[in-house]
Amino acid sequence: MRALLDTSLLADAEPRPLPPGTLDEGWAMSAVTSGELEAGVLLAPDGRTRSQRLRRLVALARGPLVLPVDRQVASAYAELRQSVSRMASNDLWIAATALAHGLVLVTADERQARLPLVESRYVG
């Protein structure tokens, strides 16, 4: 499966185990996730946490494709926003990226995993 990994999986200092086959066909992350991870470094409450988050960010920078928010993603966002009244905008932008690119959204966020229109996999 081609997967888009959500921030809820990538922000952890220790990666969560993923179901077998999740990353077999490659994976990507949204530019929104990249921004959230960078903000997490800057907003860290102490030096130790900042160092851990920075190491994780540097490791991820060598890995996946980062998909931009473009017109296609914006249209998918509008569709999702119409169908879901209460959800954080960034979560919808990430889901819209998966929808626009035909990727499976892999997330540790139960609400995000239940979004309409988006194929998803919940990793609890």
Automatic annotation (TrEMBL):
- Please report the stretch or stretches of sequence annotated as the PIN domain: 4-115
Q: What cofactors does the UniProt entry give for this protein?
A: Mg(2+)
Among its keywords, does the record have Magnesium?
Answer: yes
Q: Where does Mg(2+) bind?
A: 6, 91
Enzyme class comes to hydrolase
* Assigned EC number: 3.1.-.-
Question: Which keywords belong to this entry?
Answer: Hydrolase, Magnesium, Metal-binding, Nuclease, Toxin, Toxin-antitoxin system
The UniProt GO MF terms for this protein read: hydrolase activity; magnesium ion binding; RNA nuclease activity; toxin activity
Q: Does the keyword Aminoacyl-tRNA synthetase apply?
A: no
- Tell me the function of this protein: Toxic component of a toxin-antitoxin (TA) system. An RNase.
Give the UniProt family note. Answer: Belongs to the PINc/VapC protein family.
**Name recorded for this polypeptide:** Ribonuclease VapC
Native source species: Klenkia soli
Q: Gene behind this chain?
A: vapC
